Amino acid sequence: MLSWLRRFPHDVVHRKENAGSGGRRTSSTTTWRNRSSSFTARIIRCASSVVDATAKHDDDDDCPLPSSPPPAPPPPPEDDRVTVVSAQAFSFRELAEAAGNFRQDKLIGEGGFGRVYKGRLPAGEQEQQQLVVAVKQLDRNGRQGNSEFVVEVLMLSMLHHPNLVRLVGYCAEGEQRLLVYEYMALGSLEDHLLLPMRRDDALLPWRTRMRVAHGAARGLEYLHDRAVIYRDLKSSNILLADDYSPRLSDFGLARLLPLPSSSSSSSSSSSSSSSSSGTGRSRVMGTYGYCAPEYLRTGKLSAKSDVYSFGVLLLELITGRRAIDATRPDGEQSLVGWAATMFGDPRRFQELVDPRLVMAMQGPPASELKQAVGVAAMCLQENHALRPVMTDVVIALSFLAASTTHNHHHHPPPPLRPSPDPSYAS
User: Fold this and answer.
1) What is the pLDDT of residue 417?
2) Where are the beta strands (DSSP E) in 54-113?
3) N or C: which end of the chain has fewer CB within 10 A?
4) Which residues take part in binding ATP (predicted)?
């Protein structure tokens, strides 16, 4: 069943209509228009039946795709039940009213995917009770298509963690594609870290930066524990609540890892067999500057691809620089390339600190800076097998996020060690 789930976005684009169509293929737009929000609702209901924590192996890839979601299995005992909360389906009119008919004064963000508006939805029986939300209206000609839309609704309906953004609902009415998230009062990390500061902007302190890094690492750890590759970690996809706690957002590029083979004797042998299975090169997706080098070369994904992206993000938090900045001098335009020249010399680590922190006399203690740079360097290893897993990164960063300098001195974090690389997903 999990193999059907992985292929589902592609099935939306090319789906055979069996009744009265003579096997004619319909476009994704027609499919969505005919079935409206009920179609995505069926997808979400189906997720609870195909994602089974007790599954031992994947179904045969040659089995026919179901024309409708498979019947739900009998409910497990109450203590063992896995709860999957489905997102709510909204009409376009409901979301237009919630977002003030998408007026300019409601606009809070814009990108290649479309525009994001601040809105309010009824949250109780009384009219005064309202839920503040962010409504993302996808551009029909933007980067995020039908398959990414389905993946995001599906992923965020199944995955729930304090460091993942909460999906309130969606709209798939006609050609309209809208996603409704919980409202993040402080916007994205990019807004606070990488954009030019205004007079009323507060400098992001070192401790806050480490807490953001720790929270993002916890979100990635949660995804990897559930065999999900995020694939698009970057500062603009990390949203901040009013207490600066981070939430990973934008799951349109997320992928499921292949299930490990029971016949594999070790993780390394499983990785070798997966890498040489002849599955072919997939289209490289993500953001330039954050993509792992082996992913760019081969098109094959693993959880270590996310670990590399996290290393780039951690460098951004340390330096206040963008991953790629064409305005900087030669040799400094690539953040990783510039920082890598200093990784081997702890005496130069101070050159990596955001100059704004130094000018405000808020630079990190030398011991904490050494630990942070060390974590980033491990995550950015050229050889993916030498990178740590996110669980080890979370442990290492927890000391920087929560401890004072005194406690950090008496309770040093354990050293990061490379771990076996999980199987690739092509």
Assistant:
1) 59
2) 88-89, 107-111
3) N
4) 136
- For residue 334, the cross-strand partners are 324
User: Measured between alpha carbons, how far is 286 from 292 in angstroms, rounded to an integer?
Assistant: 10
Among positive and negative, which fits the CA dihedral 99, 105, 111, 114?
positive
CA 81 to chain centre: 26
Q: What is the DSSP string of 396-410?
A: HHHHHHH--HHHHHH
Overall fold of domain 88-182:
Phosphorylase Kinase; domain 1 (3.30.200)
In the chain, where the domains are located = 2-71, 88-182, 189-264+285-410
- Looking from the CA of 301 toward its CB, the CA atoms found within 13 Å total 24
Report pTM.
0.74
Side-chain half-sphere CA neighbours of 385 within 13 A = 7
**b/e map of 68-103 (b: 16 or more CB within 10 Å)?**
ebeeeeeeeeeeeeeeeebbbbbebebbbebbbeee
What residue numbers does the annotated binding site for ATP cover? 136
What is the predicted pLDDT for the residue at 414? 57
What does each C-alpha distance from 241 to 166, 177, 184 come to in angstroms? 12, 25, 5
Query: Domain spanning 189-264+285-410 has what CATH number?
Result: 1.10.510.10
Task: Tell me how far apart the terminal alpha carbons of the chain are, to the nearest angstrom.
Answer: 19
pLDDT along the chain (426 residues), means of 10: 40 38 37 42 44 36 31 45 63 94 91 86 74 90 74 90 95 92 93 76 91 98 96 94 94 80 40 36 79 92 96 97 94 96 95 95 94 97 96 95 54 57 51
Q: Distance between CA atoms of 245 and 212, rounded to whole angstroms?
A: 6
Amino acid, res. 69: P
| Residue of 116, 143, 118 lying closest to 285 (CA atoms) | 143
pLDDT reported for residue 111 = 74
Chain centroid to CA 209: 18
